[in-house]
Amino acid sequence: MPSRTRAAALVRAGAVRVDGTVATRPALPVSSATEVTLDAPDRSYVSRAAYKLAGALDALEVGASHGRPAPPVVAGARCLDVGASTGGFTQVLLERGAAGVIALDVGHGQLDSTLRGDPRVHVIEGCNARELQPEALPYAPTVVVADLSFISLRLVLPALVRAAPRADLLLMVKPQFEVGRERLGRDGVVRTAAAHESAVLDVVTTAVECGLRLVAVAASSLPGPSGNREFFCWFQRSAARGTASVQEAVRAAVADAAGRTAYYPADADAHPEAHGGNE
Q: Where is the Ribosomal RNA methyltransferase FtsJ domain (predicted)?
């Protein structure tokens, strides 16, 4: 394993087994006689964020296998990665067959060189997602993913909907950037389930106001670098309004410590007004 960070990320992603049992924490003591196995080869992702998106997509695949809505179609899709940074999300999308990815970030020079040189990747740097205009994009994305820091998703959602009006949006909610400072610990970590739930529901409320519906929500299988819990919300365009079942799904995701299960509002199987995908 090239680094302790990558090894720990694989453990938290549920990819490491100790004597046949999935390891739940990186600090688990083992002896020289212990059998340690890796369920899947290390993909050498450019960032640990990649494991988060991969885990969320896997959770949605599991949900689909149990009769829930099919997850966003990445294979063959033209995608938008908002807050691309070094490109972990972009890498996962390409790995899963995306025809192209727009890697958008407010910063400069962060995208990994292997992705920057990939002809399927269109790089847009120095762009504040809050100010994103459709004409700034080379095509209308059908799948949008986002991993943003130091800005609330609530401020960015209107621009994302304008830029990709028929897309599936799989967005990572970071409560530390959604709640007020008074709900942050001294270390910048959001610690209460009530605050986590409130942060996700606030984002869902804004999404509904933008004409979206929550299809599913899942806790990230990995925490943020400081230990903050994070959550993925899958939205589609729809005329449907939010229901009480949305709160139930969010509460279940917040209570899920493992973060490998997607939770669906009771009306998640209802057909939205317009469905994102490859059209």
A: 45-236
Please state, rounded to an integer, the average pLDDT across all residues of the chain: 87
Q: Which helix (H) or strand (E) holds 160?
A: helix 153-163
Cα 50 from chain centroid?
A: 9
pLDDT in tens, 118-160: 999 999 999 999 999 999 999 999 999 999 999 999 999 999 9
Reduce the DSSP state of residue 146 to 3 states and report it.
strand
240's tokens: 């449907």
Greater confidence (54 vs 189) lies with: 54
Beta-bridge mates of residue 100: 78
Pick the closest to residue 260 from 228, 218, 227, 215 (CA basis). 218
Contacts 24+ apart (CB under 8 A), 175-183: 175/199, 175/200, 175/228, 175/229, 175/230, 175/231, 176/224, 176/226, 176/228, 177/148, 177/149, 177/150, 177/151, 177/152, 177/153, 178/152, 178/153, 178/154, 178/202, 178/203
Burial 235-268 (b: 16+ CB within 10 A, else e): bbbbebebeeebeebbbbbbebeebbebbbbebb
Q: Which domains does the chain have, with CATH numbers?
A: 4-38 (no CATH), 49-263 (3.40.50.150)
End-to-end CA distance of the chain: 41
Beta bridge pairs of residue 262:
218
Q: Alpha helix (H) ranges present in 42-87? A: 49-65
d(Cα 212, Cα 133) in Å, to the nearest integer?
A: 19
